[in-house]
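Sat 14:20. Reprocessing the chain from the morning session after the first attempt stalled halfway. Input below, unchanged.
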Amino acid sequence: MAQDEEPSSWKALAELSTVGITLVLATVIGLAAGYYADRWLGTSPWLTMIGLGFGIVAGFVSLFRSVKASERRMK
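Finished this time. Tokens:
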């Protein structure tokens, strides 16, 4: 029984770390895109804030999709 539980524990840990990394990366990518768009267009700080907002939203959308997918697997 311990052998059956161990791989699922590692799999759950991998899924959790992937969700965390995705949330952070989406936020950083949105922030960087907004920052460089601001530098290019000279509209500081508006596009940086909009890019940050889009990045945060994209990260949470990914989080919710992962949660829904894991709920479907649990059923």
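The chain is about 90% helix and 0% strand.
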